[in-house]
Amino acid sequence: MTTGTTPKFTRRRTTTIAATAALAVAVPFAAGTPAFAGPNFPSTEGKTNISSIVDFDGLVAELDRIERTSRFDVEVQTLAEVGTAVSMSEQGRDLYVATVGDGPEAVWLQGRIHGNEPYGTESLLSVLKELGTNGSPEWKLLRETYTFHVIPMYNPDGSELNIRHTILQDGSAQRIDLNRDWGVGKFAAAESEAFYEYWTMVDPAFAIDIHHQGLKREYGTGDDVTFSLGISLAPGGPTLPGIEGGAYDVLTRQMQVHVFDELSKYGYVNIDRYQVGGSLEIDIKGGVVSAMMLGLDHDGLNPEGHSNPAIFFETSGNTSDGSLGQKARGKSIKQNVLALQELLVGMATGEVQAEDASRWDEIPHAPVTGYQTDNGVIPIGY
């Protein structure tokens, strides 16, 4: 891994990418992923094998391997090497980023901000490997269009403890949800300070965050949901329409409509919209991708008010509930890889920007009754 070098930062705002001919998308497989099994996606039997999940040492080893074997200059660094003021986790672990690509716009890909939601790490390692080694036209286009900043394990402490949170080391032992810690008066955790500063250095054009959720059934059918599509500031809700003249309200829906259409072609993926409490859209401002869209200026590090659109994916099941199901492992990782690849190529070709944003309402969901905010529920018709 490189030491003391400067990452490939870009200071450009989001622009509309000129459309090119539509490209057929090859499907990469996660390294070491077992063959897919039809049933048990996901399992409720509590048989998740934690020892099979990539841990922190495994992450470091895999990043090193990807960097050494890459054909297209994957660069792996710790935030200490990047030079952020805070650069390690609460428990003193290095925080890793990997960059690849020479494009004029930066893309931020992050996973495992919650330690019990593991497959973001493995999905992003799979995508990073393809970006570093795959010479096909699709991956070449992505490297030429974007510079990728990949954070496969945002929360290494929680990952090692198999818990959602990180734990403060200031003597309080307080558990902090890192995805509620980017906000005014917040930034309690070292990881939040570190990655926020890195975000202000990168100024990405857009961001994608990979999560897990609990076991879920589709509204109206009762079918098991394997994958949910989320926007953390609700489209048409109290906040998003007022950002950038409504541009993010449109583009984030276009992004998820594109993912929905492309992944619906695969019979083992059943998709709906992410909701909480049965019928509420989230409109939280303390989440990382929410703060990105809001252009949060913390500690004077973002005086120009950079902001960027961002979305998230949710795979069903997590490790602390024991609900991932070992037989579902390959499918759970692959649906993330497919979603990332389809979305990134769609953004690069302009297909996403041509989608009908109103079709967000066609993605299966319960009738919306309100918005879950940081300060409680706002009913429809507020």
Automatic annotation (TrEMBL):
Peptidase M14 domain spans which residues? 52-382
Segments forming a coiled coil: none
> What PANTHER family does its record include?
INACTIVE METALLOCARBOXYPEPTIDASE ECM14, PROTEASE FAMILY M14 CARBOXYPEPTIDASE A,B
Q: Where can this protein be found?
A: Secreted
Q: Which family does it belong to?
A: Belongs to the peptidase M14 family.
Q: Which cofactor does it need?
A: Zn(2+)
The residues forming the signal peptide are: 1-37
Q: Show the PROSITE patterns listed in the entry.
A: PEPTIDASE_M14, TAT
Identification of the protein by name: Peptidase M14 domain-containing protein
